[in-house]
Amino acid sequence: MAAKRTRRYFKETRLQQLRGLCETARHGSLSRAADALDISRPSIWQQVRALEQQFGVSLVQCHGHKAELTDDGQLLLELATPLVDSFDSLKAAFDDRRQTLVRHLTVTTTPALLENELREPILEFHRQNPNVQLNLLDQLSHEGTSLLEAGAVDLGIFSHLDENP
Prior knowledge:
- It is a single chain.
- Helix content is about 55%, strand content about 15%.
- The protein is α/β, with parallel strands linked by helices.
- It has 2 domains: about 10-95, Arc Repressor Mutant, subunit A; about 100-155, Periplasmic binding protein-like II (D-Maltodextrin-Binding Protein, domain 2).
- A 3-stranded parallel sheet has the order 4-3-5. It has a two-stranded antiparallel ribbon with strand order 1-2.
- Helix 1 (about 15-25) crosses helix 2 (about 30-35), helix 1 crosses helix 4 and helix 2 (about 30-35) crosses helix 3.
């Protein structure tokens, strides 16, 4: 039986480390990269060192307060930048998609309630929820209740139920 391989997450490349490398390249300084990421200078240095250990190469050369990427650092930067940028834009893309996603709500109610009581609430619902497609079914109370119990509709609105209120 093969031995189970233990995952050592602390030794694996992480997004924060790649972001640290990208910020170091962008700012030309570990201190300014740390400030941009709101972390300490030793933390950014540890991130870069972890990448160097993971890849087995020198990625950054420091000259005083200035930090320059080595050729290997430039190569990793070229590969990492699209990943970091893509990940950083994930929340905005998700929020954008979510706002444009059409959602569906199926409601059953009686013809009398639909005609007399629900007109204004439905119009207000549309104003407040433009991305929700509202499907209205006018059914008698017992028919609407059956649809609701069967899961064929999301919501049932009735003034009273004939049996078993």
